[in-house]
Specification:
By secondary structure, this protein is α+β, with helices and mostly antiparallel strands. The longest helix is centred in the first third of the chain and has 14 residues. Helices cover about 25% and strands about 30% of the residues. Strands 1-2-3-4 form a four-stranded antiparallel β-sheet. The structure holds zinc ion. Zinc ion (ZN) binds next to helix 2.
């Protein structure tokens, strides 16, 4: 399992998604597959953390089948190999709650590429698939 490469000490320290919760109380159960996110924002945060930890499988698995292109894995790998993720700021959410079927999350993810800082600003769309939140696209 690819989560085995995450140092155990990480469980006690703060989650990379900047929730201010410990990793074990935040995104870890989602990465381990022992729980699924209740809200679109939780999925968004866990995907950011997955980029941080370079969990390619998790990023592929949490993409909605409607937008899961054949080259998705390759594209994620490319991003993982080139970006160093530094910070996540959630700017706002729309729906995406426990009783919703769709949701949007607006965020800024800060990263370094070749030692140059960048900001990725996106409004992600999320949609449930078989009851579970999945990332649809960035066309929010
Ligand atoms: Zn988290």
């Amino acid at each position: 399992m690819e989560t085995e490469k995450i140092p155990r000490v990480r469980d006690e320290s703060l989650c990379p998604c900047k929730s201010r919760l410990r990793y074990r109380d935040c995104c870890r159960p989602f990465h381990m597959g022992t729980a699924v996110p209740e809200t679109a924002e939780q999925l968004m945060r866990s995907r950011y953390s997955a980029y941080f930890f370079r969990l390619t499988d998790y990023l592929v698995d949490t993409t909605h089948p409607d937008t899961k292109t054949p080259d998705l894995r390759e594209g994620i790998r490319e991003t993982l190999n080139h970006a160093l993720w530094k910070f996540l700021t959630i700017l706002g959410t729309s729906k995406g709650q426990a009783g919703d079927k769709t949701g949007k999350v607006e965020f800024i993810a800060e990263y370094y590429h070749n030692d140059v800082p960048y900001e990725h600003h996106e409004i992600s769309r999320f949609r449930r698939y078989k009851g579970v939140w999945k990332y649809l696209d960035d066309k929010g």
